[in-house]
Amino acid sequence: MTTLHVIAHSPFGDERLASCLRLLGPQDALLLCGDATYALKAGSEPFAALQAANLGERLFALAEDLQARALDNPLAKAVDYAAFVELSLRHDKVNSWL
Amino acid sequence: MAKSLLIISRQAPWSGPSAREALDIALAGGAFDLPLGMLFLDDGVFQLAAAQQPDALQQKNLTANLQALPMFGVEELFACGHSLARRGLDGDALALPVEVLDDSALAALIARFDQVVTL
Amino acid sequence: MKFAIAVFSPAHAPSSRRALRFAEAVLAGGHEIARLFFYQDGVHSASANIITPQDELDVAAQWRAFVSDHRLDAVVCIAAALRRGVLDDTEANRYQRPAVNLPMPWELSGLGQLHEAAQLADRLVCFGGD
User: Which of A82, A89, A98 shows the shortest C-beta gap to C123?
Assistant: First the structure.
């Protein structure tokens, strides 16, 4: 079964993103929202970690969070809430890293 | 067929109510005979350290409650090997009988449950 | 498809607002919400006593309206609520406390309701941690 992982915490000084990337299954997807979108800041360590993880079409970010933070993002696919709902159904379950 | 639930506990034992509230979800599910598993990850592995003295913080004994999990039918207990190693914890000297898993085994563990809650 | 949505954070947390927007999108997408379950600090998202400045979003009020308008099954975990001082009439009386801050349409109940919702729903989606 595949999992949509959701992270909302800033990757700076927090373990969630690093742990998630270690446990991510080969068909799992990752949705960044809230401060987790800071991981998409080019030039940062988390950004380098995301690039190295090479998630391709499996990396998503909540559009409203990118916009609020003026994040110029080449790595993740920006999604709205309707797409978030659709993603949660496309995978077998959702794991939010609270 | 009941859906299986994996509870992932990531918080240290005395960092607030999270560790206890994750355990409460497991105990409630166990009381309903639901197929559950519990994984200790990141700082959550500190809940497994032996010889803790919660009295010093005027807290209830979390370890004793964790040890009650099998009595509630929650026997699938796991810990992340990487988290243990990073924190200097010996997988053989823990207060709870858990299966220590490496990263790829953890990915497989998460994949086989119907649902996951991470606290 | 049926969703169970669990909220673990208070009304002022970004994740509470995010949960609400997600819940709205679930209904807008033609799906059902089997239950909303408020646990840990999520019990505060149900508080009737939150006062937000006029120029700020009142997420607690929006949750109340959302639950009422759609007649949703909205449960607040009783153990988490008591510990955090979120009380309905019955509990405030039982414990002789001065304030009732859990209004209709919320219902206080146990973790069994979270498990039941997880069993009934096709997806369990949790929000919180901040």
Answer: A89
